[in-house]
Amino acid sequence: MPVIEYQRIEGGSLVQNVCVGSQKEVLSVVLVAKNKRLEDIRSVALDESSRTSATLVKIIFREFLDREPEWTTRAPRLEEMLEKNDAALIIGDPGMAFPRHGLNIWDMAALWKQHTGLGFVFAMWMVRDDAAERARIVDFTGARDDGVAHIEEIVRSYQDKIPMRVDELRNYLTENIVFKVDESMEKGLRLYFELASKHGLIERVKPLRFI
Questions:
Q1: Which among 32, 185, 169, 156 is positioned nearest to 93, based on CA atoms?
Q2: pLDDT (0 to 100) of residue 157
Q3: CB 3.0 to 4.6 Å from 106: which of 31, 57, 123, 163, for a disulfide?
């Protein structure tokens, strides 16, 4: 689940130490512009599938760049997004599949790291209050570790879907993406929620609760 939804849903707990995040460039969450510097961007098209990332880009502009672009939401088709906007936020597979030539590209996890020195958590498991006891017997960390152990199979399955070399895909899954919540990641998560509240992107900061 996108982590920002933890703050928008009543109740619930996060599963401890299992996430999708990054400590540096995440590669699959990027802001793209044609001929604009980051400081000169006045309008941004947000990928309609982005929630955590849409909040993140707004935090970066409001908190660290001290500016407020015009925001619109679009389907993740980069050329169309850039037709009437200075920049586009695009995530997931579409964020890794477009030609880079002639574009300015900012990696959102890297921007967060640059301004805070912290890792960033994009997604975590969340459990409803009425399912918490049942969830405690589920081995989420074991499932995470089993997935990591099958990285090569995942790489092969994506070879024809994303225009990246096998070694680049492998590095993406083993170096750019992290699946554990260390101290830097948790501090980054807490700061992200605090800044989201500060800038009116969530109503309040719900304390972190883990199972």
A1: 169
A2: 87
A3: 31
Q: Is 4 helix (H, G, I), strand (E, B) or coil?
A: helix
How far is the C-alpha of 1 from the C-alpha of 117, rounded, in Å?
A: 24
What's the pTM value of the predicted model, to 2 decimals? 0.94
Q: Which domains does the chain have, with CATH numbers?
A: 3-198 (3.40.190.10)
β-strands 43-47, 70-74 pairing: parallel
Tokens standing for 154?
């995942």
Give the tens place of pLDDT for each residue, 27-70.
999 999 998 899 999 999 999 999 999 999 999 999 999 999 99
Cβ-proximal residues to 126 (8 Å cutoff; 6+ apart), any chain: 1, 5, 6, 9, 12, 13, 14, 15
Give the rounded distance of the alpha carbon of 50 from its chain centre: 8
Distance CA 22, CA 26 (A): 6
Q: Does residue 194 sit in helix, strand or coil?
A: helix
Paired with 14 in beta bridges are 126, 210
pLDDT of residue 159: 80
Rounded Cα distance between 21 and 34, Å, is 27
Quick one: tokens of 123?
């997604």
Residue 117, sorted as left (phi over 0), alpha (psi -120 to 50) or beta, turns out to be left
Does residue 132 surpass a pLDDT of 90? no
Q: What is the pLDDT of residue 164?
A: 83
